[in-house]
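Design job #97: recover the sequence.
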């Protein structure tokens, strides 16, 4: 049995490699039941979430991710999301690989967002705003830059020092990066806004979006969470990673439907439809688009398969 570390994933698999692995994965499809998640109550901090996410192909391999989302880890200087992925042999069902699930999750989540952006963001998008400075943020920046000519990155976080620190790290990758405490001004000049937070209140507002902006929403994986206000959802053409998951769990979508700002029919497509050519992505440079993801077992599965193949080459 092979053990794949976080370092192995970064060494052998580029951001674009994972984008293409997920493009093929969503086009092919696999058996991927809606994930099971359980609330883990905490006495002195926000509750944590326990996730189990299986997937398999008929007559093919299978895999499962076991993960935990712990908001309180920010104060411990630890990732909010941690986990392990186990890949099973296609014939025997025996474990064939154990993969660092924390790194796999951040990388595949960023790849899914970038895959969506490849259909939804303007081709000439150069200016990106990153809302949040946790473990997801650098992965999202690199992934989006693998599909669009991102040059300028502005980072906002409730803790301004963390935004400034990440900006310095991102600048070393060749981007013109800076931190800001003025999210509104940053958003008003952005081509692409990516949000990866654990917020339960809107951070980005619809009247901040200029024509042609693409909004990528990674946080708010529970109905009680959200990163945008209703005006963002009403203003944008809406796409999701999967209809089933986003309409049940994606807080930005669920709350906008509940308030009457949008209808379920306003969700125009998901990554299955986009990759198979069943739905159209961006139709003009002037329209605003939004992509809401909550995570899908398929993403972990095809990312895990791609990682193991790359490591074994």
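Job complete. Output follows.
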């Amino acid at each position: 049995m092979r053990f794949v570390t976080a370092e192995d994933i970064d060494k052998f698999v580029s951001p674009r490699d994972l984008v293409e692995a997920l493009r093929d994965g969503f086009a092919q499809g696999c058996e991927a039941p809606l994930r099971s998640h359980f609330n883990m109550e905490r006495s002195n901090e926000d509750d944590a979430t326990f996730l189990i996410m299986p997937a398999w192909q008929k007559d093919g391999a299978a895999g499962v991710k076991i993960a935990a989302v712990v908001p309180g880890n920010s104060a411990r200087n630890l990732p909010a999301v941690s986990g392990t992925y186990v890949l099973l042999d296609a014939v025997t069902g025996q474990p064939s690989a154990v993969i660092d699930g924390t790194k796999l999750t951040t990388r595949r989540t960023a790849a899914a967002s970038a895959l969506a952006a490849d259909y939804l963001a303007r081709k000439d998008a150069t200016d990106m705003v990153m809302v949040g400075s946790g473990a997801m943020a650098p992965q999202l920046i690199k992934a989006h830059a693998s599909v669009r000519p991102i040059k300028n990155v502005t980072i906002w976080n409730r803790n301004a020092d963390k935004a400034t620190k990440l900006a310095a790290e991102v600048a070393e990758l060749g981007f013109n990066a800076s931190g800001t405490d003025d999210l509104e001004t940053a958003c008003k000049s952005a081509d692409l806004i990516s949000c990866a937070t654990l917020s339960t209140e809107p951070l980005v507002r619809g009247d901040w979006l200029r024509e042609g902006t693409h909004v990528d929403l990674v946080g708010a994986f529970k109905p009680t969470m959200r990163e945008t206000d209703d005006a963002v959802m009403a203003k944008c053409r809406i796409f999701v990673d999967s209809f089933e998951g986003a309409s049940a769990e994606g807080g930005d979508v669920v709350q906008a439907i509940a308030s009457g700002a949008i209808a379920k029919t306003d969700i125009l497509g998901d990554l299955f439809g986009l990759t198979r050519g069943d739905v159209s992505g961006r139709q003009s440079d002037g329209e605003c688009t939004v992509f809401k993801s909550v995570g899908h077992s398929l993403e972990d599965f095809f990312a895990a398969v791609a990682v193991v193949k790359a490591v074994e080459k």
